[in-house]
Fold these 3 entries.
Entry 1:
Amino acid sequence: MRNLHLGLGLIFVLMAMIFAVSSLAIIYRPWLGSKPTLSESVVRISPEAAASPGAAARELMANHGMKGELRQIKEDGDAVSFQIVRPGEAVEVRYGRSTGEVKIKLRRHGALETLIQLHTNHGLWHEYVPSNIWAAISFLASVGLLLLGATGIYLWFAHHSERLVGGVLLGAGLIFGLVTLVLTRLEQ
């Protein structure tokens, strides 16, 4: 059990540190003052691509180097808008079906904001393959960290002389976590 505990700790320490740093960045985001770099451009797409947002996004990805997941599609008559998003980068696209003229706003974030976006990435199934890989790694790391905690509790319980101190620390950690969770829910 000790070797399993040690192995889990060595394997998942990097993910734990990534989650810790991104958690701190989320908490202190206003103090960090990171500003994204913005750029705008105008391009043209074919009439076939302009007919649907999905086709327009595929053409922009193929011909203009955009990568990511298609989100927030809005259609209002001739006007169409959507986003192509990946961690660290968001592209806002607006175009008219009749003209095929596409206005692109590219927003690139720094390393800490990218970590925050990775930390808050939801789900396991995305159109963007690197997001799927990250989601799978995050899931495995979460399971590994839970197993690390379970093996640690088992090892602590196996040492009779350390049960009182460990029990107090475990109880204090549990109470702290629950109080923090309740307080964060009350603030929303």
Entry 2:
Amino acid sequence: MKVGTKSVIFGAHSFLIHPFFVAAAWWKLYGFPWDPRLWAACFFHDIGYLGKPNMDSIEGERHVLLGGRFMGWVCGAKWRDFMLCHSRHWAKRLSKPYSKLCVADKLAFVMTPAWLYLPMARASGELAEYMHVASARQSGGQFSNFELSLLKCRNPEVWLEGLKSYTRRWIEKHRDGCADHWTVIRSTEPQPEACDGGGY
């Protein structure tokens, strides 16, 4: 079973757990998600990880496509773009704004307690990959010296706190939709689908 599939079933993007944290994060940021399309977005935005051999390389980055196509088919182009641009890297590579779902997704990560996140990410194999590529994430990403020191640690709990600290600051800076100058494009392969931001 590939790491992306394991992530969606029982890992950090578990279909049974992660969507509820995203919904809770949306509630905290923007108010209760009354629109059923928002709930669909919470549940299907990461479904494209199914079958992916990695989480952070180009195959993993393309996970946005499946959920975007699904929402586009069911709810229209605005919601397709809302889903596609929940990835700040995907939106950045297209020179498009990230959607509010991106901010809620980041806050969901912060809100997920370490005692839950780490066992899930370890069981799926994601944790090893995330920690392995941590050095690449640190390049030009507006990390503080304190966060860099935590991210260099091989202790998962310490490493996770460093990443959460950075993510909290990104959320604080970008929750209202300002331009994202922090995110560094990790890969250069051109993408077949664009988005117009489509923020809900």
Entry 3:
Amino acid sequence: MSNKKPTNNDDMLLFVEIVQVTGRLGLSMAGAMCGTFVAAQLTMTDAALFDSAGFVALMVLVGILGFYLGIDVPCLRSSLAKPESDRPRIDPIELLSRIGTFLAAIAALISVYAFVFDETMRPTFEYMVASWWMVGVVFQIGAGLIGRIRLAKAAG
């Protein structure tokens, strides 16, 4: 049995981790709301595929995963990263995450507008908005997973 007391540094690290997870849970709730609005707009297209509880649940779940994993992509510490040159470069994983977040958010914004103001959009446009949503959250999920895999490989 160790008599070693936790240090203030350990307490601070625990606090930072709790805050980070809490923030990501908030982002996942935003993703769930976005998914709900996109699903609600699609159910108004009269397509039988989109008019089911399973479809709505899938859209909410994908939104939760996308916003939880993809918005907060872990980065390699500068000591682990090996820059190829002195010029600043764009991390492709961060770029993927940010493009995904933009696509998912713009799709949700259009869906919220159409849903709240009871606007009728052409089915072609609704499907295009839905594809922005799906591509966006897939980009977010992919970026989040790739970033975590990259970090694990660098640490191990």
